[in-house]
Amino acid sequence: MNFDVLIIGGGAAGMSCGLILGSALENKVVSNKNIGIIIHQKTSHLNSALLNNVLGVEPGTSGQQILKEGALHLKERYPQVRQIDKEKVREVIQLQKGFQVVTNKNIYKTEIVVMATGYTSPFRIKGFEDKVIPHKKAKASKERIQLENEDHRIKPGLYVAGSLAGWRSQFSIACGSGASVATDILSLWKGAHTKVHDKLL
Ligand SMILES: Cc1cc2nc3c(=O)[nH]c(=O)nc-3n(C[C@H](O)[C@H](O)[C@H](O)COP(=O)(O)OP(=O)(O)OC[C@H]3O[C@@H](n4cnc5c(N)ncnc54)[C@H](O)[C@@H]3O)c2cc1C
Fold it and tell me: What is the pairing mode between strands 107-115 and 158-160?
């Protein structure tokens, strides 16, 4: 299966990135783009979170609810974004053009990869050995990691979002980071700064 963008990780940053890219397809901001997300959620930090301090989220909402409803939101609203369930990424390999993403079950080719797998150490996905550094915005004693990047970009075609990009671990920061990467990709495709806004008629 070939993708234009493959998002790796179905937590706060990954799903937010998928929602914005899905809305761009839905609103015909872009067309003929094959977008996928490896929606692994087992190790999301949201699994143990309780959210009282997030704008727009009802206080008392569990992170597990966000994970379940977020995936459903993405599936129902933007079905063009292909959700790949029950697969874990093992390796990302740079090709002459694009990347190969190897999971425990399949191999995918994609032009662009968005890494959104969280800041937990050790980082087990092969292909990033020279990019893993200590997290710059977490207590050293926690031994969190991030991928070296400049404004979410590791290198052409390879992006990182959320806590793995070096942001502090707060739900809205991770969502904003994923959304930011999505608009960077849209801007790259369009050749001009691009956002996606739905409007009241
Ligand atoms: C106990 C607790 C309480 C919290 N409370 C709050 C709070 O009150 N307010 C607040 O704002 N924030 C809170 N947070 C923080 C919030 O949960 C995180 O900031 C947020 O989840 C980070 O988003 P992320 O996308 O970077 O990572 P995550 O949400 O952790 O997502 C990473 C995703 O990558 C997937 N993944 C990992 N490895 C692979 C792989 N090899 N292949 C494919 N997928 C993979 C995981 O399964 C997961 O879905 C809390 C966190 C914890 C742990």
Answer: parallel
